Amino acid sequence: MNLHIRSVNTLLPPIRHEANEVEYAFMHWLSGQDKATQLKARRILRSADVDGRHSFLTMDEIFSDCGLSESTRRYREAAIELGTQALHEGLELARVRADEVDFLITTSCTGYMIPSVDAYIADRLGMRSDLVRLPVTEMGCAAGASALIYASQMLASKPGGIAAIVNIEFPTNTLQFTDYSMDSIVGTALFSDGIACTILKEGDQAGRVSIEDIQMHQVPRTTEILGYQLTDTGLRMNLDEALPDVIAEHFEAATESMLSRNGLTLHDIEHFVIHPGGVKILDRIQSLLDRFGGDVGRSRDIMRRYGNMSSATVLFILESLIKSDPKPGPALLMSFGPGFVAHQALLSINEQESQS
After folding, report:
1. pLDDT tops 60 at residue 76
2. What does the pLDDT read at residue 19?
3. How many helices (H) and strands (E) does the chain have?
4. Cα separation, 77 vs 287, whole angstroms
5. Contact indicator for 332, 342 with CB cutoff of 8 Å
6. Mean pLDDT over residues 2-6, rounded?
7. Alpha helices for the chain (secondary structure H)
8. What's the pTM?
9. Over pLDDT 90: what percentage of the chain?
10. Is 335 left (phi over 0), alpha (psi -120 to 50) or beta?
């Protein structure tokens, strides 16, 4: 592969809700439930280890009895506005004009619209009429890595080509007001909103980060452990408590073939860019990586500061890594999602950014 990342930038919706504000609204939402449920829910929220989260909605709007039509309207307006802003800023950072982009990939599992959001973004930014667009709507949290895989495959067919990825996630707009199940409670405790943009280029000159290899890995007979169910009132969370165990059980197998064909093992990975999912998942992965000298501290930090932003989260982690002036070496980027899948990219952190 001869592919490098020109830029990674992130964007947070304008409203930040601190942990104490979230807890007050969260417990008010559950005030009609029995005491045992309330106590368990409070423990879940506090153990999520999220200091604050962003949303394009006020707390009253998040915890409201909102139907599918209204949540879709909210999503559409915010996705177009913030998605366009994120790509505009990303193109400026990468020193790329909108009409130079050959491929545009958008990811989002927290809302649906037809035409898809990429059509509106392309129109607003004056992108080319022959632009190849790919909206990815059903890959969940995995789509952060999935989009890098799709972009890599697209760029392999176009020497010198440029791809843009925009991840747009608004989980706070999906809360089901009358769903007090543990799945809904855990999802509400973990998730928040975020947008990310990545610009990639195929070419001879290596950038600060290169993509060396890509791989998807699906675990058989696990399709029901994670996802959304589309109901009359909106998206209802499905989050099986076995998820951390499944990830821990299959983590090494998911990475083995990609690393081995590049002459690497987990011992050789200098940086881990892992979608956090939640504290339990991070704890299980950390216990595995302890044997290899690996660390998920950066994933834990992003989760603490912003919550789980679905497909955008892994790019927040990658942006944080790039800004830290990291030591050169191989990096493993991985995100998990419904299917159940582990999608990954082997990155190379290089000495310096391209000046092209």
Report:
1. yes
2. 95
3. 11, 13
4. 42
5. no
6. 93
7. 19-29, 35-47, 59-62, 68-94, 117-125, 143-155, 182-190, 243-261, 279-289, 297-306, 313-323
8. 0.94
9. 79
10. beta
**CATH, domain 3-202, list 3.40.50.300, 3.20.20.70, 3.40.140.10, 3.40.47.10:** 3.40.47.10
Six token digits for residue 242 = 């076995």
CATH 3.40.47.10-classified regions of the chain = 3-202, 209-349
pLDDT tens digits, 122-147: 999 999 999 999 999 989 999 999 99
Per the structure block, which two tokens stand in for 80?
Answer: 């177009």
At residue 354, the pLDDT reads 43
**Crossing angle for the helix pair 35-47 and 19-29, nearest 10 degrees?**
160
Retrieve residue 221's tokens: 């007979």
Decide: 190 and 307 in contact? Cβ < 8 Å: yes
Q: Which class is 209-349 in CATH? A: alpha beta
CA–CA dist 157, 274 (Å, integer): 28
Rounded CA-CA distance 102/280 in Å is 40
The pLDDT of 311-328, averaged and rounded, is 96
| Both tokens assigned to 327 | 């030591």
Name which of 196, 177, 193 is nearest 53 in CA terms. 193
Calculate mean pLDDT across residues 5-30.
96
Spatial separation of the C-alpha atoms in residues 103 and 155, rounded to whole Å: 8
Kindly tell me the burial class for residue 48, based on how many C-beta atoms sit within 10 Å of its own C-beta (0-12, 13-18, 19 or more): buried
Amino acid at 15: I
Local structure of residue 110 (DSSP, 8 states): S
Beta bridge partners of 236: 229
pLDDT at position 204, please?
A: 67
